[in-house]
Amino acid sequence: KNSVPPPWANMSIPWWRAQTTRYLVRRLHPWFWQRVQQYRREVTPQGHLPPHTISMHVRRSDKVACEDPSSPWCRSTEMNAVSFGSFMRKAEVLRERDPRL
């Protein structure tokens, strides 16, 4: 019998890894979570990214098609994998258009 409740029974391994990591960081190691929050305040003292910052959401793992669809790591094929370098090239194009970035 499956012991995982239906809403979460079909979640991918990367999703479970993220949930476990979050649990460990927030529940078992509050000092670590506090350090992450401290670092966040140091990096973004205004509470947000400064003007002219390029911010990209790089989606990986759970939405990326895999080479081996039978792998437990491959549950979804919503998109093809895009290299991180291609994101950086797009950022450079934006910077060329607006040097303030």
From TrEMBL:
GO terms for biological process: protein N-linked glycosylation. GO terms for molecular function: alpha-(1->6)-fucosyltransferase activity. This is Uncharacterized protein.
